[in-house]
Write a structure and sequence with these properties.
- Helix content is 11%, strand content 36%.
- The strands form twelve sheets. It has a five-stranded antiparallel beta sheet with strand order 1-20-19-22-23. It has a five-stranded mixed beta sheet with strand order 3-9-8-5-6, covered by helices on one side. Strands 33-38-39-36-37 form a five-stranded mixed beta sheet.
- About 12% of the residues have low confidence.
């Protein structure tokens, strides 16, 4: 069959009089440059145990050039659990193209496949498929079993594989040889090996087909007019049928073949006007790189695209008809080593012992990359405790593959690094299928006029002013902002627009920040400037940041995946037991979960809660009896598991109990206060108290590591004592988490023997440095001490240069 197909194309194009094409290169043109952005996150390792830290470095680059010149300077990073719930969000300030932070995982976190998602506000204008996503497997410290009866019931279900067919160029056309790519996936989105038969509507067998790798494959055939085609496979003993796309009577077939020096695009048309006055355009990240005008009454064309005008990465070929409508499209991947930066990591010796100092020298190839500015991060991991994935996502596969195509690519590193002789063929199959008629440039150019999310260079606070007595009525007012944190104290004011809306921009909250927003009546009479207590009959509504919806497809019924989860959960966790071992004498109690009922006071709750809407627990003082002379915080004891009042603060039992001070963050109407500030408040003034635990407290930053106790008091509309509460009109307090900052990575030092060093040292991440700085000679040095485990180390360095060249290298150390 392959020989006949090849002869078919050669015969048709050997009699073709080649067009003299108007061919021009636009590799330096900026006329179609766009401002989309890409994100890559370098993690210290690919999988974790509950209780560990996920250390990460964020790289934000211009999608066209991969340089650090981006319009956004703020990145949001979400940690999403297997139930599609965002359990924590970090706001990262980007400086010189990068920023770093970490997720502190709770020791009681359930095991499973989590997802880290990252995006800028500006990226929300485009398809969310281009957000950064990476799956991270987290192993629980407690035993987790999936009941056998569930597995048995699910295994009885035959879930039909998802098989899609992608004609090269976009459509099947009758009477021509058509090349068709296909992709077969199981329910968890991973490729599956299949084989089957294509038959026509008379039942006649046309051809047989099978997958190559990751569920990818292709076949070729000539569809005939008035015939329909379907594919038949047998999966787990069951015959399943899939329909092929219906072939067109009039259309163009495109076939792209890569040669050593060029790409050759074969076109065949069955239109009445054939290919006359059609345009052929090639695009890459920076826009249009070449054009070809097709003239003459010819039904066939051969276009050669030289590789020397291409950049490394995806190139898109598009054919437009004489009405300038795209009718056929195909993408390919151009590979070259010229775009990579030569970086070297040189160890001080080839083999190390336990608790020995390791020194590594990092250097650029000064002959080629002299004085090149770089942005790099490095991780050193113990290979005995970390499941490494040689084909996992890295900075190169993210920027050149994952960020350009929709959907998740299974083992993206395979397509760029594997020694498999079929690698390039399978890479082209990926372009034919997952890249079929989808490309980041298309979405960007088509959505330039539909931008509703602005680019952020700093934190902003926005909201609207309403009448205090009618929250549906907008009001114009003077709005002031006062903020205070450990690093700065600031003040600003402005006048709302005609709709009562306001926004404070360029807020550089480098830490958890206390904020007071106040609305006052605009006083135009100069004589009234000194009037005390100006009218503040306003209600302030703060715009809450609403994260994009999580639309990931989670595995619900896959028996294969369930078994995989069981196997991973049962792996040895001995090395972590010493880290989280309970102190001697500690009594371990079972957690008591209290179920709260929904009351008609939800509207009251939502008015007062600014940064969150779903606390772990609420104590409503209308529903309980408390001694009027009692400290309001003692009402939590016995009602909230693990909470106690000790005079100097309120304590919450949790993961931090074993690690040090476990005082919770205490808030009064949104402002952080000490425990004594609450003691002086009459019980009758307390409306309710919210308790936030675990990931729900993460929005308040590191100060809320042990949870949050949020006390809310009544205002004038809720109590009759309006004189006392009059001043609360037109004012609102809140705590903004500010930018997230990574805590210092712990590095033990063994220069001298200490008593505390007797404890067995077992670490999975030996070293993490998110900001490698080169000196004037293009070199940098790092050092760390080994642990007590005899195991090799993997050193991974990733980054990018200021002008967009990708950096990736790794070495292994023997121990």
């Amino acid at each position: 069959m392959k020989k006949n197909i090849y002869q078919y194309w050669v015969l048709n194009f050997s009699i073709l009089i080649l067009f003299i094409l108007f061919f021009s290169s636009f590799s330096n043109s900026k006329t179609t440059a766009y401002t989309q952005e890409k994100i890559y996150i370098h993690f210290d390792k690919p999988n974790y145990y509950a209780g560990e830290d996920i250390w990460f470095k964020v790289y934000l680059v211009n999608a066209a050039t991969h340089s650090s010149e981006t319009i956004s300077k703020v990145v949001y990073v979400d940690l999403i659990n297997p139930k599609n719930e965002i359990i924590e969000t970090k706001t990262i300030k980007i400086n010189e193209g990068g920023g770093e932070s970490d997720f502190k995982l709770s020791a009681g976190l359930a095991g499973g496949e989590y997802t880290v998602r990252a995006y800028t506000n500006f990226m929300r204008n485009f398809n969310h498929s281009y957000f950064f996503r990476k799956k991270v497997y987290i192993k629980s410290l407690r035993s987790e079993n999936i009941e056998d009866k569930d597995l048995v019931s699910k295994s009885a279900e035959i879930v039909k594989p998802d098989i899609q067919f992608f004609p090269e160029g976009g459509y099947l056309v009758n009477g021509f040889f058509n090349r068709v790519g296909f992709k077969a996936l199981r329910i968890d989105g991973k490729g599956i090996d299949i084989e089957g038969t294509i038959i026509d509507n008379s039942g006649k067998e046309v051809l047989q087909f099978k997958t190559s790798k990751f569920g990818l494959g292709k076949f070729e055939f000539i569809p005939e007019k008035n015939k329909l085609y379907k594919a038949i496979i047998v999966y787990k003993g069951v015959e399943i049928t899939y329909k092929l796309p219906v072939a067109l009577d009039k259309g163009v077939v495109m076939k792209v073949i890569e040669h050593s020096d060029d790409y050759r695009i074969y076109l065949k048309s069955s239109f009445d006007k054939r290919l006359n006055n059609f345009n052929f355009i090639g695009t890459q990240r920076k826009g249009v790189i070449f054009k070809a005008k097709l003239n003459g009454n010819n039904a066939k064309a051969l276009i050669k695209v030289p590789k020397n005008i291409l950049e490394q990465g995806i190139v898109q070929f598009t054919l437009f008809n004489n009405n300038n409508e795209p009718i056929s499209e195909r993408i390919s991947f151009f590979e070259t080593n010229k775009a990579n930066v030569n970086i070297n990591i040189t160890p001080s010796k080839q083999e190390y012992g336990t608790r020995e100092l390791v020194e590594l020298e990092i250097s650029l190839d000064t002959i080629i990359q002299q004085k090149l500015q770089t942005n790099m991060s490095i991780a050193v991991i113990d290979m005995s405790t970390v499941e490494t994935d040689p084909n996992g996502l890295d900075i190169k596969s993210q920027l050149l593959l994952n960020s350009e195509l929709k959907g998740t690519i299974e083992q993206p590193g395979y397509y760029l690094y594997s020694d498999d002789s079929e690698r390039k063929r399978n890479l082209d199959l990926l372009m034919m299928t997952q890249g079929w008629r989808q490309f980041i440039i298309n979405d960007t150019l088509n959505n330039q006029s539909k931008q509703t999310f602005s680019a952020e260079t700093d934190i902003s606070l926005s909201g609207s002013i309403k009448s205090f007595y009618n929250h549906n009525k907008s009001a114009i007012a003077e709005v002031s902002l006062t903020y205070n944190n450990s690093k700065e104290l600031g003040y600003d004011k402005l006048i709302t627009n005609n709709k009562g809306q306001f926004i404070f921009k360029n807020l550089n909250f480098l830490d958890t920040t206390s904020v007071i927003i106040q609305a006052k009546k605009i006083i135009k009479d100069k004589k009234s400037k000194n009037v005390k207590n100006p009218k503040m009959n306003f209600h302030i509504e703060i715009d809450s940041f609403i994260a994009p919806k999580v639309t990931l497809k989670q595995i619900q019924n896959s028996t294969e995946f369930s078994k995989e989860m069981i196997n991973k959960s049962s792996e040895n966790t001995e090395y972590l037991e010493s880290i989280y071992q309970l102190q001697k004498g500690t009594v371990k109690l079972d957690e008591v979960v209290l179920k709260t009922s929904i009351s008609n006071r939800d509207s009251l709750y939502n008015k007062k809660r600014i940064l969150y809407k779903d606390p772990s627990q609420t104590i409503d003082f209308e529903d309980i009896f408390v001694n009027p002379n009692e400290n309001p915080l003692t009402a939590l004891e016995g009602r909230v598991p693990g909470v106690s009042w000790r005079g100097d603060g309120i304590y919450m039992r949790g993961a931090s109990t074993m690690l040090g001070d476990n005082r919770a963050l205490l808030l009064l109407d949104g402002m952080p206060v000490g425990g004594h500030a609450i003691e002086s408040i009459p019980i009758s003034d307390i409306a309710f108290i919210d308790v936030l635990k675990g990931y729900k407290a993460a929005i308040y930053g590191s100060r809320a590591a042990n949870g949050v106790i949020a006390v809310y008091t009544h205002n004038g509309s809720e109590k009759s004592s309006t004189n006392k509460n009059y001043k609360k009109k037109g004012i609102i307090n809140l705590v903004h988490p500010g930018y997230s900052h990574a805590r210092k990575f712990y590095e033990p030092v063994y220069r001298t023997q200490k008593k505390e060093d007797d404890k067995f040292d077992y670490r999975s991440t030996m070293y993490w440095n998110p900001t490698i700085k080169l000196n004037e000679q293009g070199k940098a040095s790092i050092s760390f001490y080994t642990d007590d485990v005899i195991s090799p180390y993997r050193v991974i360095l990733e980054g990018i240069t200021q002008n967009g060249q990708i950096i990736k290298t790794e070495i292994f150390l023997n121990k």
